[in-house]
Amino acid sequence: MRAAPWTVALALAGVLVGAPSLSAQTISVVNNGGSVADAQREAFFKPFTAETGVEIVEDTFAQELAKIRSQVETGSLVWDVASVTAINDATGCEEGLFEEIDWSEYLDPADFEGVGGFGKCGVPNNFVSGGLVYDGDVYAEDGAPRSWADFWDVETFPGKRGLLYRAEQTLEVALMADGVEAAQVMEVLATPEGRDRAFAKLEELLPHIIWWKAGAESMQLILSGEVVMTYGWNGRVATANQSNDRNLKVAFEAGHVSGSQYFTVMKGTPNKEAAIDFIVFASSPAPQADYAARISYAPANEKAYPLMSEEALATLPSGHLDKASYQSGDLYLDFWLDNGDQLLQRFVTMAAQ
């Protein structure tokens, strides 16, 4: 499956040649910032602008749906395209914050089945895995943490832990630490007893937690030594290693939370056509392969895999997909749509203790 650089370049050129020519204009795309923004800029934004003449204005946010809601409700749109989580895609679509588009008119649905298919309103642009991150230079292989139970074991592994300041993903991890298999996490969490169990497990670790809100912050915490382990996203780990010459590792075998980010079109944008053209371009195989190689997140488009090198493929959690709690499917989406606000309030109250 190794592809020479010129093969990818030719494939990318084919996408560019086939892209529609648009009149000069500007669209704004918001994402999570950091290494995600850097990779999207090189793989998506610059090539799209080079072909179409449409300039991309970048912005970042920490998945606060309120920021999208306020723009749409006031009619004061700042963004045209938003890169959002599965929950925000589903919630925003239900609230009428995103344009409902039949993406099958533009893209082959079969190419995205492996990551759960199209979202309620958006198109998946990558496949992200959040797992147990530790420093391989601090813990030797035979003494490294291998489970979320190890993450909770502050006697054997003393020091602070980094966790995502978000109910979604963090509650799943807490249940894994309490012995629930990753594949059964959502079934357990969907019960009142399961939710109580997850919160009780988090409260055990509470004095040792440093909360983080942005992916870049998770890496700063472990690179600086403020935490000895953290929940982190695999692409952030790969970028942190490359940028800092470090040896951070992800214990995928412990269990991980995996799902896609989705490109969505903001409701009411006057740049809807250009926004759609951008998403179609960014969802094509060659840009997807380029992006995945830069960020070490798996591509959403299955046709991107043959364009990736063996080295790039080796950074993905493909050997541990049976250990994933998937952020897709009706159980996951319906649960978080029905319970997300309530669980967020409970989570915030707990974290403030």
What does this structure look like?
By secondary structure, the protein is an alpha/beta fold. The protein folds into two domains: 5-127 and 260-316, D-Maltodextrin-Binding Protein, domain 2 (3-Layer(aba) Sandwich); 130-258 and 322-351, D-Maltodextrin-Binding Protein, domain 2 (3-Layer(aba) Sandwich). The chain contains 14 helices and twelve strands. The protein has helices spanning 5-18, 34-52, 65-74, 86-94, 148-152, 167-177, 185-189, 192-205, 215-223, 234-244, 272-282, 285-295, 310-313, 330-351, and strands at residues 26-31, 55-60, 81-85, 123-124, 128-135, 161-164, 209-212, 229-233, 248-250, 256-259, 261-265, 324-326. Strands 5, 6, 7, 8, 9, 10 and 12 form a seven-stranded mixed sheet that branches. A five-stranded mixed sheet has the order 2-1-3-11-4. Helix 2 links the parallel strand 1 (26-31) and strand 2 (55-60). The chain is globular and about 60 Å long.
How would you sum up this structure in a few lines?
By secondary structure, the protein is an alpha/beta fold. It is built from 14 helices and 12 strands.
Write the layout of secondary structure elements.
Layout: H1 5-18, E1 26-31, H2 34-52, E2 55-60, H3 65-74, E3 81-85, H4 86-94, E4 123-124, E5 128-135, H5 148-152, E6 161-164, H6 167-177, H7 185-189, H8 192-205, E7 209-212, H9 215-223, E8 229-233, H10 234-244, E9 248-250, E10 256-259, E11 261-265, H11 272-282, H12 285-295, H13 310-313, E12 324-326, H14 330-351
